[in-house]
Amino acid sequence: MSEDDDRSPSPNSITDDSSQTRTYTTGSGPGPGPGSSSVLEYLAPCPDQVLENVLENVLWFLTSRKDRNAASLVCRSWYRVEALTRSDLFIGNCYAVSPKRATSRFTRIRSVTLKGRPRFADFNLMPPNWGAHLAPWVSAMALTYPWLEKVHLKRMSVTDDDLALLAESFSGFKELVLVCCDGFGTSGLAIVASRCRQLKVLDLIESEVSDDDVDWISYFPDTGTCLESLIFDCVECPIDFDALERLVANSPSLKKLRLNRHVSMGQLHRLMVQAPRLTHLGTGSFSPSEDVAQEHLKPIISNCHKLQIFWVLDSICDEGLQAVAATCKELRELRVFPFEAREDIEGPVSEVGLQAVSEGCRKLQSILYFCQRMTNAAVVAMSKNCPDLVVFRLCIMGRHRPDHVTGEPMDEGFGAIVMNCKKLTRLAVSGLLTDRAFAYIGKYGKIVRTLSVAFAGDSDMGLKYVLEGCPRLQKLEIRDSPFGDAALLSGLHHYYNMRFLWMSACNLSNQGCQQIAQALPRLVVEVIKHEDNLDMDENVDTLYMYRSLEGPRDDVPRFVSIL
Amino acid sequence: MQRSMAYERHLNLEATELRLGLPGSDEAPEKTSAIPSVRSNKRASPEISEESRSKGSSSLSSDVENCEGETAPPAKEQIVGWPPIRSYRKNCLQPRKNDRVDGAGMYVKVSVDGAPYLRKIDLKVYKSYPELLEALEDMFKLTIGEYSEKEGYNGSDFAPTYEDKDGDWMLVGDVPWDMFISTCKRLRIMRGSSEARGFGC
């Protein structure tokens, strides 16, 4: 070993782009652990070095996360090189790993995706201020990723200060996508608009944005922007239309524009005329006064032969769906949302619409369907007619509703889905379901990754079937179902393979959850109490547990206890 | 037998009776909340968790029998988070309420001298001056200091002031809390001791 061994690395050498000047200790001998290049030495290129350089050049081309994860497990050398060549960081649960750990391992990240709260938090099943704060992440990234270009966040709490830090820290920042986030306002948007001069994408999707009385659109530079996509239909504040018009005129690359409902149809038309290069233009929703009635929709639909993705309100009715089935042979994704999200009404769509779609749209891959009534027959038909289904989410809004023709539980329908749809990875069930439905899922749902259960099942067996039968299960969310401690314990062998488990209003006790926590030290077991019920009784309102490298988080609110 | 019957009465079986409707759905609807448009964790009805508990522990077959062949269930109250539609999407469809003025909240703008952006807070959330001031200190990361009638706010550069219905700028704390709540139109946290102290004299 040369006498240069002990020289400590300069900070630049770790993030240095040119591979020729970077050197490593070889893998043999008592060197530092994987991922640390704390001892650098200049060596004449030796065979191992050449191999590593080659590896680095090859690994640059690896884009799939799964492939990269696999590559990093081959040996220490591959681990190191993979870490250096990864540019997209995906963190499915922001509490599974700390910002420090992530930024230490991956030093050349250009794009970060972070997911925070569990999905059921969107439906008010979690008290506010639970966590998922962006702040520690943006602080860490500000220090380690000066070349960061893209940030995609889902269900995170983002403050105006976080947005300010982001805007200041990353001079080449290009893309900000916030899905189901909250905690910030139009002031934060103003800062991003004015500071991020390279911004191409600003997409705010189903996020809660507070109105700070700031005309944020006018903060984009007058001299021109690089904007390609601007989506803000969820921002509930009025905007200055003139400022928007100027922005569109100043943004020659703008292709996608989704405005909020404070823009009238007339104004929308003006924009369309002025900016013919737009490929996506819309308001993201209809206001009740301007809604598109079913009879207007049908003739439009009959011309959309190439439609692949269709999101629509159920006011389209079964007949409208029949028109879709007759015309949209290329349909891949359909979402039918309820105009009135209640349980006790007739409902304009039913098994008739579902059956029609299954017969007409054979290439369907993803469906989300809200309805009031359904039959097993229609669901079975879909399972047979649409073999490419990857996502099947059926929400029969009346809880515990059986097949409305036969009076039977919906077990057979969902059973057919898992049996016949060999590519199915995401499933949401509803209606009256016995343990039998779960037996089917456990038996046939071998590649199911995400399962959503509400008001279903008879006993612990239901959950056991799933935990024992579905080896690929990663995300399981359950509410208001009679599954207890015994069922919970039957999943011990699998919880480390999962991203999370959510169970609310089930039959769990503190004791049962304690047992899990003790058996699995790398699992964070959170018991969430609802704020109006803070006494420590035996029953667990909500269990949210997830694997983590960090142990209990340090930003726990008072209504959460970590076992 | 006697004892178990008395126990059953004590249990108020009607409340935990197995049926499709929510226990207590016969009662007045004020127990539940409407589709929550603001993120609120107030459960519509805590009985729903009892219902699933009682379903789990009691006989399964009778439960299934109850469900099958049942005609349209009675009008149900809204359950928290069901159907699973995000409040954002629900808000799009409901007629827009003016939530600035009605009982749902009392939002006022808060500006801080020197800070780049405004905030809005809901005064209804606070019950007293100390609570409000603590929240402001938290929100803007500053210290406001102690209030005294004669000298205004001691101990810091910041003084919270507000504009009242008549357009006058007053020092926060000069009037009783209830009067403050009903007359405050906006808040401004002033900086610079002399200007702020000017309020105290």
TrEMBL record, chain A:
SMART domains: LRR_CC. Residues 108-153 form the Transport inhibitor response domain. Residues 9-26 have a biased composition (Polar residues). Residues 48-87 form the COI1 F-box domain. One of its GO terms (cellular component) is SCF ubiquitin ligase complex. Gene3D superfamilies: 1.20.1280.50, Ribonuclease Inhibitor. Signal peptide: none annotated. It comes from the Eukaryota. Residues 1-39 are annotated as: Disordered. Pfam families: DUF7885 (PF25372), F-box_5 (PF18511), Transp_inhibit (PF18791). CDD domains: F-box_AtTIR1-like. Residues 171-439 form the F-box/LRR-repeat protein 15-like leucin rich repeat domain. This is F-BOX/TPR REPEAT PROTEIN POF3.
Automatic annotation (TrEMBL), chain B:
Residues 105-197 form the PB1 domain. One of its GO terms (biological process) is regulation of DNA-templated transcription. The keyword Transcription regulation applies. Keywords: Auxin signaling pathway, Nucleus, Repressor, Transcription, Transcription regulation. Residues 16-79 are annotated as: Disordered. One of its GO terms (cellular component) is nucleus. It is found in: Nucleus. InterPro entries: AUX/IAA_dom, AUX_IAA, PB1-like. Residues 55-64 have a biased composition (Low complexity). Its main location: nucleus. Aux/IAA proteins are short-lived transcriptional factors that function as repressors of early auxin response genes at low auxin concentrations. Repression is thought to result from the interaction with auxin response factors (ARFs), proteins that bind to the auxin-responsive promoter element (AuxRE). Formation of heterodimers with ARF proteins may alter their ability to modulate early auxin response genes expression. PANTHER family: AUXIN-RESPONSIVE PROTEIN IAA17, AUXIN-RESPONSIVE PROTEIN IAA3. Homodimers and heterodimers. Belongs to the Aux/IAA family. This is Auxin-responsive protein.
